[in-house]
Amino acid sequence: MLDSATADSSVCFEATLARHGLAPLRRATVRTLQVNVGKLCNQACHHCHVDAGPKRTEIMARATVERVIELLGASPAVETVDITGGAPELNPSFRFLVESVRRLGRKVIDRCNLTVLSESGMEGLPRFFAENEVELTCSLPCYTAKNVDQQRGKGVFDKSIDALQTLNRLGYGKRGSGLTLNLVYNPVGAFLPPSQAKLENDYKRELAFAFGIEFDRLFTITNMPIQRFAADLVRSGRHQAYMSLLVNHFNPATTPGVMCRSLVSVGWSGALYDCDFNQMLEIPLPPRHPRTIFELSSVDRLAGAPIATASHCFGCTAGSGSSCCGDVV
Fold first, then answer.
1. How crowded is residue 248: how many other Cβ atoms within 10 Å of its Cβ?
2. Which among 36, 132, 126, 128 is positioned nearest to 84, based on CA atoms?
3. What residues does 59 pair with on adjacent strands?
């Protein structure tokens, strides 16, 4: 349940949309089914909005994975299955899910933290990705070791570089290979991401020069004031300032492209949400709509439905905007 502060912020966001003639926010055709297969992760990053870590036990069961596949088959408008975690590769049914989605002719995106490739039993993952033409979107919050290790833990940068070099050797990130390798930048602190295009150029220059690494695109994603990052903001006395930053940089031009308008999020238990952030805050779909994948006959039926909002929505609509594919405008 939302506390009073969050509820007030929700009204504030809805009122902001209304002032710009944008309320209510509604979903268009669902093109992406985002599936969180669990909160188990080999890392515990400071900015993690999922609050994932090595001790988490929430894992999507095989029966739930099978229902996701069945629902996908009944949803012809869905083009992409975007698999998230935790570290999604740690789910025992991960490979089964990927192979099943590919057999249905849909695109698969895996949101990989890179270091999972160095875990025991994961040695064959890079080749599995390539054989199934999985698009990889990988976390790398900076091209320097100091900033990466500060946000994600000691030694993470070196493991990430090793993983990227392995993926490059298989053709990922190489022009004409058909194997897409994207990187994700999250700000190390309580500020908005810089220009995505400029930062992408910086990443490509520095990673190529220092390590010979190539990749396709860089996505800049705003840190959402929820879960672990929100707790850090409160402890450091920066929560109110960060929320003010987001609210004061609200950009109405971002609203047509926010991810919730073309995406539906599935939690590890099979519950349905408007986006991954609503999932982590346990904000369900609005009333009179199915709440789980077991109650839904087709994802296509959610087109036109209203979208539940709260204060974190200012994060997706601030500045150039933020989505699973980076900036919006």
1. 9
2. 36
3. 38
- Asked whether the predicted pLDDT for residue 105 surpasses 50, the reply is yes
Sign of CA dihedral 221, 324, 156, 242: positive
> From CA 130, how far away is CA 42, in angstroms rounded?
22
3-class DSSP state for residue 53?
Answer: strand
Characterise 38 by phi-psi region: left (phi > 0), alpha (psi -120 to 50), beta (else). Answer: left
Neighbours of 263 (CB within 10 A): 24
Q: Give pLDDT, residue 200.
A: 98
The phi-psi region of residue 52 (left if phi > 0; otherwise alpha if psi is between -120 and 50; otherwise beta) is beta
Query: Which residues share a beta bridge with 218?
Result: 183
pLDDT value of position 128: 98
88-100 pLDDT, tens digit each: 999 999 999 999 9
Q: Which of 102-111, 160-169, 203-212, 280-289 has the lowest mean pLDDT?
A: 280-289
Q: Which two tokens stand for residue 88?
A: 């999604």
The residues spanned by each domain of the chain are 25-223+256-308
Per-residue pLDDT reduced to its tens digit, 232-291: 899 999 999 999 999 999 999 999 999 999 999 999 999 999 999 999 999 999 888 899
How far, in Å, CA of 221 to CA of 239, rounded?
18
pTM of the model: 0.94
Closest to 34 measured CA to CA, from 311, 327, 261, 305 = 261
Can you tell me which residue has the tokens 């300032």? Answer: 241
Fold of 25-223+256-308: TIM Barrel (3.20.20)
Nearest to 199 by CA among 140, 252, 258, 253: 140
